[in-house]
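Intended use. Records like the one below are meant for learning the mapping from a protein sequence to its folded structure. Do not use them to infer anything beyond what is encoded.
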Amino acid sequence: MSAVRPGTAGATRTCPHCKATILESSSVCPACRGHLKFDAPASDAAQRFVPLKVEGTVSAPDDGAFEYSMVIVIRNERGEEISRHVAGVGAVFPGESRSFEVSVEAVPASPGKRRLRH
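Structure written out for the chain above:
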């Protein structure tokens, strides 16, 4: 979890359902989709937007299989690595394929929250 003080933009906590690290402001966990704040305004969902979404499919060649590792890397504006996470691993055999989707879900920070530098 982050060393960011509670109540500031970017502060994190642990999802009580799946134990993923999530934003403190989340009313629904992006990992398990469990509801966290039942008193959250209905407008939270209306404010959500997806500034990045990438989808793709890989297929194994007919003459062999391959193994894969799906790695998510987050970098700041200077190109410095902030986070690296292996999202999944596996193998694809002839005649099989795997589809991948990576998306960034965002919601505007509350007006009273400070801007943080990472």
